[in-house]
Amino acid sequence: MNGVLVIDKPAGMTSHDVVNCVRRLLRERAVGHLGTLDPLATGVLPLVIGKLTRLAQFYNGAEKTYEGTIRFGFATDTYDAEGQPSTPVSNARPTLEQVRTMATQFCGVIQQIPPPFSAKKIRGVPAYRLARKQCEVELEPVSVEIKELEVLGLEEDRAYFRARVASGTYMRSVAHEIGQRLGMGAHLATLRRTALAEFSLADARTLDQVEKAVVPGDEENLFFHPRRLLPAFPAVTATDESAAKIRAGRAVNLPEMSSARQVKVFYGQNQLIAIANRVAGTLFHPKVVLAAQ
Question: What is the CATH superfamily name and number for domain 64-191?
Fold first, then answer.
């Protein structure tokens, strides 16, 4: 079974929990995800299945879009609602103008310190393991890009936002630092990922929907259409002869695709068999073969 399945991750599950659940439902061992979501977070979690797990390398820098809430009044050790308070509780509340003005300071390429409860490694050990043992965690700032951070509104102690960010950005750290700069403590109360690369909530299925589709054998209808994958790469359709060569990892001549350096190669309308690199002219060599010989 080969395909991409977009899951609407529920709160309380890790991304790996979702992967294990789908492995069990589809009876397929080769399942991976494109971009971790914290247990608190919900929303778009694309899963690559079967030979399409090899596509993960093309999504390492995928842009992500989020909606969520920041709660003011106290910070937590995890920077989100699952942690323990790490500052005294304050009744101070910011104004909407203050939060919006502060949000502008986080737009663009910034230096961000990841949360202590994160997968970032310190001398080879994930930071969250050290934090759980109450060891001191000192993470170095990393360069991230926040392309858009819009504060939609403010109700009592909660600010509602929408963000569009480059890969590697922690919205937990954004919430924590906004609270620090406003001098009243804050943490991420909710987070929902609404898009990752070309995948959106409109494409997402719940785990219940997957389970119900598996019983009558309709799980293939849940998959993201392969022609919509990696939209920046033009799609070409291989002949029987060139498809056989591609499956064997050999270079082939494909239809002229202007100056495209990489293309998606299909056999028929729906079978994505390779991502190929241009060698010269119309000659392409498969970079990743996604179909058996």
Answer: Pseudouridine synthase (3.30.2350.10)
pLDDT given at position 293? 58
> What architecture (CATH level 2) is domain 3-62+198-224?
2-Layer Sandwich (3.30)
Q: Under CATH, which number does the domain 228-289 receive?
A: 2.30.130.10
Question: Is the overall model pTM greater than 0.85, yes or no?
Answer: yes
Residue 126 has pLDDT above 60, yes or no: no
Give residues with Cβ within 8 angstroms of 222, minimum separation 6: 5, 205, 209, 210, 213
d(CA 176, CA 171): 9
Residue pLDDT, tens place only, 71-102: 999 999 999 999 999 999 999 899 999 999 99
What is the torsion angle, in degrees rounded to the nearest 10, for the CA atoms of residue 144, residue 148, residue 149 and residue 152?
-160
Q: Which residue has the higher pLDDT, 57 or 282?
A: 57
Q: Tell me if residue 203 is catalytic.
A: no
Of residues 38, 80, 157, 203, which has the active-site annotation?
A: 38
